[in-house]
Amino acid sequence: MARPPTSRSAAHKAPSALPSSTQSDNFRGNAGELQQQAGGKHPVLTTQQGIPVADNQNSLRAGPRGPALLEDFILREKITHFDHERIPERIVHARGTAAHGFFELTHSLKKYTTAKVLTELGVQTPVFTRFSTVAGGAGSVDTPRDVRGFAVKFYTPEGNWDLVGNNIPVFFIQDAMKFPDLVHAVKMEPDRGFPQAASAHDTFWDFVSLMPESMHMIMWAMSDRTIPRSLRMMEGFGVHSFRLLNAAGESTFVKFHWRPKLGIQSTVWDEAVKLQSADNDFHRRDLFESIEAGDFPEWELSVQLFTEEDAQRFPFDHLDPTKLIPEELVPLQPVGRMVLNRWPDNFFAETEQVAFCPANVPPGIDFSNDPLLQGRLFSYLDTQLSRLGGPNFAQIPINAPKCPFHNMQRDGHMQMQVPKGRVNYEPSSLQGDTPRASLAQGFRHVAQADDGVKGRVRPESFADHYSQARMFYRSQSPLEQAHMASALVFELSKVGTPHVREAVVGHLLHVDADLAQRVADGLGLQTLPPAPATTEPVQELPLSPALRIIDRMKPTLQGRCIGILVADGSNGTSVANLRKALEKVGATVKIVAPKVGGAMLKDGTLLPADGQLAGTPSAVFDAVASILSPDMGAQLAKEAAAVDWFRDAFGHLKAIAACKGTRAILQAGGIEPDAGVVDPADVQGFIAAAQTRQWDREPQVRTLA
Ligand code: HDD
């Protein structure tokens, strides 16, 4: 076999692209010429120690075909750094998407708090907001059925305030003592390592069946809230009662609510499932694209304020995090808005390294005795010590306050500051510039008398596990109730252990007998299992229509995306007219074609495509349209991707604007056009239909429990 030349004279010809001063026997095959494409002025590549690097392609070797040398500090440093590029992912909320923005106060809460972020009108407080799924790992998909984290870091002039909430106003458990059990139960099962990012498995439902306090949150988890259409269309909740503290030392309880400007909207379950294959990054991409387009997501911050005396009159204990305060009971008062307007420069440095902690509150905000909150106050700092590698993570730019900060905390791993002077303790008399505590500006705690008997106790006022679960279920529209029943059937059908399935249905009997029956029927149970014993009677609480989603979907195309299918021979004028009309009312339009290079229109112009048909299923759109020649329509009617495009759009209750050429595809998909299927020439009709989902269609396309 012929071997490459090994003689020095043949092998060591320096590449001509190198300046003559760098040509030497030590360099060969430097691919400097490959790097000329970006243009601009490039700084010299260096090691971490600042040593300039001459060759970033070839490791140091004993001869061109010889072994690599240990001496190669450049190679070793590069590989060593790479080997340590990953840090432990969050045990929960590992998959996250974040953006920068600002919070602007519109109504001062001066009467209730001294916190400047809630009292100074018109000031834009910088924020960094991270949304997340809970159960899945960092590389899991965006659209499983799951609670979404909604964590906001306000960089206030009095230090960082982290409002670390969810898109659901209640939680599964009442006491932080149960959090590790809950998380172990919902994450992949420890012996088999699956399922990923899913609650539909035995361990989760086993835990739930033995923890009746989870039943209210289960109703939310099984509702359409956990399959949001977009991060921009989710509500957010601080969940717990917090306290506000005013200058006179008076305290008021507060609950925080975020409401999206685009309104709240969810997907349908089959769509969420298909999105998992269509686009793993569906939510992340949507947020990225909206911010890049200058279409900045916005939320209104509202508060519910109430006193201890008000709380005494509630038919539940507001310190129990499995309870919400219906807005019909304590109205929401809007106080400000949050706008997310800047995508992070670097995912790892910002989105991954950001560290939220519910204990981060500025003076004027304090905690309630909610036992779940009390446990959280400990957990986040603790987890960050190991996740971010030591006690100095607050110095990482994304975590550092944007106001001045000084203290005597010193040293430790990754210390980035170089404190000056002899004094690293307090009190001291040696230096005039050392930080001192300030009674006037410092954090004050609500002066509250607590003199209970020590014990591992649960208050009796936490014993009612079903009344609000019932209220939530019965407040939903019939269709949303059917979605919940179907979600329960889906999840429990993935549970292999019959007694677990039956135990959950037993709990449902306390929530709503009809719901229990529907789920039992869906599971094929021959008889209804017994309801577990309860210590408290289930109360008939007033219903809260504000908890629905379907009725509250905003009739707008803003924030929504329409796909238009075209192919060779499509009528360009029709496409342009439709696109213009849709964009005029705020929709984003994407062109889909059999080839990503685009379609050669009837008039001979090439219309580039945003997506290729086979890789851009209709699940990623809010409504679809098509403008096809009869020939192409007939051809595509034989194409599974095209037939699925329309069949799924129809099944996901989306409006369809289908030209005559498309009818063959609809026929192939067995679609019988209804009021939500219009002609693309009827632009206004299409816009009206696309602003909502075709809810009336649902019973025709799927059997709900
Ligand atoms: Fe938690 C992360 C929200 C209960 C312990 N939690 C985390 C995040 C959110 C929440 C949004 C992700 C923050 C980010 O984007 O980095 N958690 C909640 C809500 C809860 C809740 C709304 C109940 C009302 N959490 C809770 C309890 C405990 C924790 C009871 C422990 C006792 N949570 C953690 C954690 C995490 C976390 C393990 C994982 C990573 C991290 O904190 O930084 O410490």
TrEMBL record:
<keyword id="KW-0349">Heme</keyword>
<comment type="similarity">
    <text>Belongs to the catalase family. HPII subfamily.</text>
</comment>
<keyword id="KW-0479">Metal-binding</keyword>
<keyword id="KW-0376">Hydrogen peroxide</keyword>
<dbReference type="InterPro" id="IPR002226">
    <property type="entry name" value="Catalase_haem_BS"/>
</dbReference>
<feature type="binding site">
    <location>
        <position position="376"/>
    </location>
    <ligand>
        <name>heme</name>
    </ligand>
</feature>
<feature type="domain" description="Catalase core">
    <location>
        <begin position="46"/>
        <end position="434"/>
    </location>
</feature>
<feature type="binding site">
    <location>
        <position position="179"/>
    </location>
    <ligand>
        <name>heme</name>
    </ligand>
</feature>
<dbReference type="GO" id="GO:0042744">
    <property type="term" value="P:hydrogen peroxide catabolic process"/>
</dbReference>
<dbReference type="Pfam" id="PF00199">
    <property type="entry name" value="Catalase"/>
</dbReference>
<feature type="binding site" description="axial binding residue">
    <location>
        <position position="380"/>
    </location>
    <ligand>
        <name>heme</name>
    </ligand>
</feature>
<dbReference type="InterPro" id="IPR041399">
    <property type="entry name" value="Catalase_large_C"/>
</dbReference>
<dbReference type="InterPro" id="IPR011614">
    <property type="entry name" value="Catalase_core"/>
</dbReference>
<keyword id="KW-0560">Oxidoreductase</keyword>
<feature type="active site">
    <location>
        <position position="93"/>
    </location>
</feature>
<keyword id="KW-0408">Iron</keyword>
<dbReference type="GO" id="GO:0020037">
    <property type="term" value="F:heme binding"/>
</dbReference>
<dbReference type="InterPro" id="IPR043156">
    <property type="entry name" value="Catalase_clade2_helical"/>
</dbReference>
<dbReference type="InterPro" id="IPR018028">
    <property type="entry name" value="Catalase"/>
</dbReference>
<dbReference type="GO" id="GO:0004096">
    <property type="term" value="F:catalase activity"/>
</dbReference>
<feature type="binding site">
    <location>
        <position position="130"/>
    </location>
    <ligand>
        <name>heme</name>
    </ligand>
</feature>
<protein>
    <recommendedName>
        <fullName>Catalase</fullName>
        <ecNumber>1.11.1.6</ecNumber>
    </recommendedName>
</protein>
<comment type="function">
    <text>Decomposes hydrogen peroxide into water and oxygen; serves to protect cells from the toxic effects of hydrogen peroxide.</text>
</comment>
<dbReference type="InterPro" id="IPR020835">
    <property type="entry name" value="Catalase_sf"/>
</dbReference>
<dbReference type="GO" id="GO:0006979">
    <property type="term" value="P:response to oxidative stress"/>
</dbReference>
<dbReference type="InterPro" id="IPR010582">
    <property type="entry name" value="Catalase_immune_responsive"/>
</dbReference>
<dbReference type="Pfam" id="PF06628">
    <property type="entry name" value="Catalase-rel"/>
</dbReference>
<dbReference type="Pfam" id="PF18011">
    <property type="entry name" value="Catalase_C"/>
</dbReference>
<feature type="region of interest" description="Disordered">
    <location>
        <begin position="1"/>
        <end position="41"/>
    </location>
</feature>
<dbReference type="InterPro" id="IPR029062">
    <property type="entry name" value="Class_I_gatase-like"/>
</dbReference>
<dbReference type="InterPro" id="IPR024708">
    <property type="entry name" value="Catalase_AS"/>
</dbReference>
<feature type="binding site">
    <location>
        <position position="387"/>
    </location>
    <ligand>
        <name>heme</name>
    </ligand>
</feature>
<dbReference type="GO" id="GO:0046872">
    <property type="term" value="F:metal ion binding"/>
</dbReference>
<feature type="binding site">
    <location>
        <position position="90"/>
    </location>
    <ligand>
        <name>heme</name>
    </ligand>
</feature>
<feature type="compositionally biased region" description="Polar residues">
    <location>
        <begin position="18"/>
        <end position="38"/>
    </location>
</feature>
<dbReference type="InterPro" id="IPR024712">
    <property type="entry name" value="Catalase_clade2"/>
</dbReference>
<keyword id="KW-0575">Peroxidase</keyword>
<feature type="active site">
    <location>
        <position position="166"/>
    </location>
</feature>
<dbReference type="GO" id="GO:0005829">
    <property type="term" value="C:cytosol"/>
</dbReference>
